[in-house]
Design goal:
The complex is a heterodimer of chains A (63) and B (136). Chain A has 63 residues and is α+β, with helices and mostly antiparallel strands. Chain A has helices spanning 7-10, 34-43; strands at 4-5, 17-21, 27-31, 49-53. A three-stranded antiparallel β-sheet of chain A has the order 3-2-4, with helices on one face. In chain A, strand 2 (17-21) and strand 3 (27-31) form a beta hairpin. Chain A is globular and about 35 Å long. In chain B, the strands form three sheets. A six-stranded mixed β-barrel of chain B has the order 4-6-11-7-10-9. In chain B, strands 1-13-12 form a three-stranded antiparallel β-sheet, with no helix packed on it. The longest helix of chain B has 6 residues, at 49-54. Chain B has 136 residues and is mainly β. The relative contact order of chain B is 0.25. Chain B has one domain: Cathepsin D, subunit A, domain 1 (Beta Barrel). The chains are: A alpha+beta (63), B mainly beta (136). The A-B interface holds A 1-7, 10-11, 15, 19, 22, 33-35, 38, 41, 49-63 and B 2, 4-11, 13-17, 19, 21, 31-35, 41-44, 46, 48, 50-51, 53-54, 67-70, 75, 102-107, 110, 126-128. Chain B: This is Peptidase A2 domain-containing protein.
């Protein structure tokens, strides 16, 4: 099975939250906090959005 | 329900993780779907305090609990309960809210009780995560 590749569209974000379309192809908003990015998405009246925390490096994490 | 693994930026190279879009719900409020890490190595489910604030979950008066990272580092968290929506299905699970989680993975679904309410099969060899909710 092919993975969902978010490597390219997330590469310009290092912190905060990113909103992407549910087909995982396009960034529609970003923000420092969950509240901020949620408000931006709701203002766009979109219902096809998924949020992801932004990081430069998701590798190496291991309670 | 099958969920493909997600390829994410990593150093020195990209990394693939079992992430699933989940809505977190409390009373009449809900988050947008958030890509959350399915983590069999976590005793509990851990959520950023940002979600508690967004959903107006009152944690005042909740006695904090100490969890420990893999290297033994303690961190404070606040136990609560939440409803999750996964693939159109709803589940109630206990969660631990903390503001000391990794910024890369602020939403982690762990063993108690999530793994008791679903059959979760990690098929990393073919980059697939299979989640089947158990009948009530």
């Amino acid at each position: 099975m092919q993975t969902i590749n978010l490597s390219k569209i997330l590469k310009n974000f290092s912190s905060g939250w990113v909103a992407i379309t549910s087909d995982y192809k396009k960034v529609v908003a970003s923000g420092k906090t969950l509240k901020e990015v949620t408000q931006k998405v709701l203002q766009q009246k979109r219902d096809d959005v998924i949020l992801i925390p932004a990081s430069k490096n998701y590798r190496g994490f291991v309670v | 329900m099958n969920f493909p693994y997600t390829t994410l930026p990593g150093v020195p190279k990209d990394t693939k993780r079992p992430l699933v879009p989940i809505k977190f719900i409390h009373k009449d409020k809900s988050t947008l779907p958030i890509l959350s890490l399915i983590d069999s190595g976590a005793d509990y489910s851990y959520l950023t305090m940002e979600i508690a604030k967004l959903l107006d979950i009152d944690l005042s008066g909740v006695k904090p609990h100490t969890s420990f990272g893999i290297n033994g580092t303690p961190f404070l968290c606040y136990p609560s309960e939440i409803t999750i929506e996964l693939g159109g299905h709803h589940l109630n699970i206990p969660v631990q809210f903390s503001n000391q989680l990794s910024k890369a993975f602020p939403c982690i679904l762990g063993q108690e009780d999530f793994f008791s309410k679903a059959r979760i099969t990690f098929e990393r060899y073919k980059w697939n995560l299979d989640i089947r909710l158990l009948e009530k």
